[in-house]
Prior knowledge:
A: Rossmann fold; 10 strands; 36% helix; 23% strand; B: mainly alpha; 78% helix; disordered N terminus; ABC_AA/LPS_Transport (chain A); L-phenylalanine transmembrane transporter activity (chain A)
Amino acid sequence: MTAPLLSLSGVSRHFGALKAVDDVTLDVPTGARHALIGPNGAGKSTLFKLVTGSMPVSAGTVSLAGTDVTGLPEHARARLGISQTLQHSSLFTTQTVEQNVLLAAQRRHGSRASLVPRRQAAARERVDGLLADVGLEHRRGSPVADLSHGERRQLEVAVALACEPRLLLLDEPAAGMSPAESARLVELVRALSETVTVVIVEHDLDVVFALARSVTVLHLGRVLLTGTPEQVRASDAVQEAYLGTGRESLFTDTAGPAALGVS
Amino acid sequence: MESIVADTAATGGRRGGGRRPSSLLRAVPAVVVLVLLVAAPFVLAPFATTVLGRILVFALFAVSLDLLVGVTGLPSLGHAAYFGVGAYTAGIVAIEVTSEGLVLVLVAGLAGAVAAAATGWLAVRSSGVFFLMLTLAVGEIVYQLTTTLDSVTGGSNGLYGIPAVRVGGTALTLAGYVYWFVLAVFVLGFTALWLVSRSPVGGALRGIRDNEPRMRSLGYSPFRYKYVAFVIAGAVAGVAGGLFAVQVRLVTPTEAGFTTGALALLAVILGGAGSLWGPVLGAAVVVLVRDALGPTLEGHGPLVLGIVFVLAVYLLPRGFAGLAGISAAVQRRRAASRRTP
């Protein structure tokens, strides 16, 4: 049995008295399609930041493929194969779509340390392929500032994939996408090789259940439940976390807040 | 010409198809300017040739600052320190050892690089206002050193008696020959910076300018890239300082002072930060107003510079380079409207 690709052990992050992430222990095996869900403020995005290293943990350890990476800075973890899309698009806005993806691709495929111009054929080929995958090939030369919100989300995914990650963290990738765009996203993630492990935070539970084979529910910074999508759907605790206590009647009523999508 | 560009853009789905001819076309103005610059001493009077040489010296300095300000997004207030270090080093070497031009320029560049490597290690770790303050402090320290180390730098009198530069053992006494030497080094220095800005590292520097946290999450160490840019900019500033010593043959503390750095920053903003060629034009305006126009205005040159600056900020928010950007944007819009009728 090999070590799980991502292993969190007792990971916590406190902001003063607030425990944003509280003693989270979680193993994500290689090739998993794992979803992280939970109500707003459950600590999903904070947990992602602790994994990528953009925020230090207050306690606990983060391991990648058996190696403890808790003490490594963000860029070093990224080089070990962690890549992410952020909840709010974070791109290089003065540059073109192609340059954005190239910046990510040249780290793996090109001569990123070259001080003279390079053709970067391999990196550019990869960029072309990725842009076609996310459906932005016709926008290659456009500055990012000209892109629509949905297109930026697509570009974000292309940039994250251009890092050739072992672990891909998607933070609400479908937020603001049209149904057609998010369907395309689901197809893209499904088509990823099994060597890429995907952890996804998403509020659109259609996307979650279309992709995930295992789900962790976070609530107030703690792991409420980890299981298969079916177990999560059936769990009373999850319904309580989303809807509060004493509203089971609302939940069973099809016209009520059950439309939130846990059904 | 425009239709050729538009056609390749429309037919060539691959970006490589559109890039080659357009980059060749873009080289045409550069070649024309270079030919004009080489021919200038035949046409201009010796004084005008000297002014043109001073413009090139200052332009190389401004372009090196542009690598920091425009490409990397590090606005430095103390960049003149490395210019000054280069100028003093070249001057001292010329007086004490040899005035062989190539040696002077290389030693000046090396001195600038070493100074930038020593100070940048700390400065580059900071950002925003702290970076401004640290670079300002470095500039002030170097300025104070140049005024107080009388025995080495000549103090506030400056370093004078720098012999004429030699190339292959022959002293260049005519203004035209000195100018050609300066031009040759300028072209080399500019080309080096241009190559860096177009290289993968240059792309990473722009990425850091636009979105440093994202670069970190892509696996880049911003510190390393910024430090490399800082040292390269320092080296080229040192070379420009060496050229200054060759051209003017008198180095005073002013060269390392805040005013010089601020004027270079003005040239960068005037010309358009990040374009590299824009600051060359900016430097031309600054030097012309200060050196050529200034004396006829009874010392009111800085006032004119101030007015030019205010006008430029209002009328050309992206500097002279922004003018070229406008025509490119118009072309792009035309191409886009043709694609989607």
